[in-house]
Amino acid sequence: MAERFSLLHASLLVADLARARAFYEGVLGLVPSPARPAMSFDGVWYDLGRGQIHLINLPNPDPVAGRPEHGGRDRHTALGVSDWGALKARLDAAAVPYSLSRSGRRALFVRDPDGNALELMEA
């Protein structure tokens, strides 16, 4: 019998939690989850359907320089968006750079202030 899996959360390392929160909450519109327990490091969780994004304020051992310009050619976390057009307009208004999916889908790739790539696609 095959095991069944579901994604519970994706953790992203951030150097400056306030700057990251300004992006995830101020630009993307995510709402912090009250479920995050006290931990030995700062961070914030965001509920996304049945899963979560965890921002972890710890040093990043991976280089940010030299990553592919197009986030689809880099490791990334894909998020479904109910109003893709409105999100794209918010990114434009905030002058946040992104690249459109090369597959022709209504999807775009954006990097957070720490270089973490996100795919934001119409759900």
How would you describe this structure to a colleague?
- With 123 residues, the protein is of the alpha/beta class.
- The chain has one domain: 2,3-Dihydroxybiphenyl 1,2-Dioxygenase, domain 1.
- 17% of the residues lie in helices and 30% in strands.
- The strands form two sheets. A four-stranded mixed sheet has the order 4-7-6-5, with helices on one face. The chain has a three-stranded mixed sheet with strand order 1-3-2, covered by helices on one side.
- 17% of the residues are buried.
Give a concise summary.
The protein has 123 residues and is of the alpha/beta class. The protein is 17% helix and 30% strand.
Classified by CATH, the class is Alpha Beta
Beta content comes to 25-35%
Strand order of the largest sheet: 4-7-6-5
Query: Which structural class is indicated by helix and strand composition?
Result: alpha/beta
Described by its quaternary structure, the protein is single chain
Query: What percent of residues adopt helix (DSSP H or I)?
Result: 10-25%
Inertia-based shape: globular
Number of domains: 1
Average pLDDT: 93
CATH architecture: Roll
Report Rg: 15 Å
CATH superfamily name? Answer: 2,3-Dihydroxybiphenyl 1,2-Dioxygenase, domain 1
State the major sheet. 4 strands, mixed
Number of helices: 2
Gap between N and C termini: 30 Å
Topology, number of strands: 7
CATH topology: 2,3-Dihydroxybiphenyl 1,2-Dioxygenase, domain 1
Secondary-structure element string: EHEEEHEEE
Low-confidence stretches: none
